[in-house]
Amino acid sequence: MVISKNEKKNQIIEAAAQIFAKNGFSGTIMAEIAHCAGIGKGTIYEYFKSKEELFFAVFEWYMKESGAAATVSIAALGGSASSRLMALSESLMASWLEMMDVYSLVMEFWAASASSSSQMRERFKEAFRRAYQEFRGIVASLIRDGIERGEFQSDVNPESIAAALVGAWDALFLQAWFEENFDPLTTARNFLEVVIKGLSKNRS
Q1: Nearest-CA neighbor of 120 among 112, 129, 111?
Q2: Domains and CATH numbers, the chain
Q3: Contact between residue 13 and residue 61 where contact means Cβ atoms under 8 Å apart
Q4: What percent of the chain has a predicted confidence (pLDDT) above 90?
Q5: Closest CA to 3 of 32, 37, 36
Q6: pLDDT confidence of residue 125
């Protein structure tokens, strides 16, 4: 069966994600990725000129697969701002749980943003900045919508609340990574219910 170049590229990225998650960036060699993908080592270099470039492609793949793209469509749905915030949180937590087997990649991505290689460091720092800014912007727009609809109090700062929520979601899943029995989905739901109650004009 002949597969397209795009399919082959995705095959390499998914194999690389598994190996980077298992061995870390520094402990990974291209030959092992090639073996996992079922291709020759030289084939990888037809798609990625270096291990660093492949690692960044894995970062982009992870961000897409972990639910980052879904937040945009959820935010655009109809319904109350509260229900959309809750739907976003539920979707995000569920997506992250599905990716738990490769969550160690997140640690590797953070490490890359502090890499001794200035090129890698700046590339990952900029990518993280863009990702966080976009995500905070989506959450803030939901809160602003709630204010405009009269659902939330008008004296709250959407950007500050959004930053706190994004930070909380990050921290909850980090705890789930370290603590096997920790339930980020239920904890996020309970936390967001308290936040929404605090934002609401009618707090009863």
Answers
A1: 112
A2: 1-49 (1.10.10.60), 59-199 (1.10.357.10)
A3: yes
A4: 66
A5: 37
A6: 94
